Amino acid sequence: MDNVKSILDTMEEYAAVQHVPIISREGGQLLQEVAAAVKPVAVLELGTAIGYSTLLLATTLTIGGKITTIEQDENRIAIAKQFLSDAGVLGQIKFIAGDAGEVVPQLVDKFDLVFIDAAKGQYLDYLHKVMDKLSPGAVVIADNVLFRGWVLDDKAAPKRFRTIVKRLKAYLEFVANDFRFKTTIHHIGDGMAVSYYQGETNQ
Ligand SMILES: C[S@@+](CC[C@H](N)C(=O)[O-])C[C@H]1O[C@@H](n2cnc3c(N)ncnc32)[C@H](O)[C@@H]1O
């Protein structure tokens, strides 16, 4: 993994030129910090795009660890595979092509870290579907939860984004109030929610 830095740089350039949305630099740093503390064996990522955050996460895996990543755009999966092969981490990644909302219920593994970064209007649905697949002490990280600041000030959101904004708000309310999660919302990049799973019993 010696060349990870230069591959990440290349991916950033590719994403900028091709208009592929990827996690911000500071968001990526937080993602890596949280993941490095959790030392995950099993990671689930929703929304691979070109594999930029997948590569960040791959650098934090415990030996023998694996990332399952779901993406609905097959062209992006092909590009991600090439980048992750160049980085020498392809063997640790399982790609699943499809709609995350349909794929997640079919997964049988438990996960130590879940990164939600697919359809913004579906975050709460994804979380409900992933809940029985969280290992004790797992962390769920969701990107873009403040969505250009509109989640905190929904009246400013253009009409076409109001449903997404409403749903992101519902996601944040859920992870802030449900006893199974302890959540911090980070005002970096487009906003990231880091939610530690406390288990199913309310003590
Ligand atoms: C913001 S990008 C992911 C960026 C990536 N996590 C990163 O930071 O490098 C969101 C991706 O989710 C994919 N996506 C959107 N809706 C999806 C769905 N319902 N199921 C699976 N993938 C989806 C999009 O095609 C897009 O590539």
UniProtKB/TrEMBL annotation:
Source organism superkingdom: Bacteria
Residues the entry annotates as binding Mg(2+): D117, D143, N144
Stated family: Belongs to the class I-like SAM-binding methyltransferase superfamily. Cation-dependent O-methyltransferase family.
Coiled coil: none
Name of the gene: trmR
Keyword tRNA processing recorded: yes
Gene Ontology biological process: tRNA methylation
Function comment: Catalyzes the methylation of 5-hydroxyuridine (ho5U) to form 5-methoxyuridine (mo5U) at position 34 in tRNAs.
Catalytic activity: 5-hydroxyuridine(34) in tRNA + S-adenosyl-L-methionine = 5-methoxyuridine(34) in tRNA + S-adenosyl-L-homocysteine + H(+)
Membrane-spanning segments: none
Protein name: tRNA 5-hydroxyuridine methyltransferase
Entry binding sites for S-adenosyl-L-methionine: I23, S53, E71, D99, A100, D117
Subunit structure, interactors included: Homodimer.
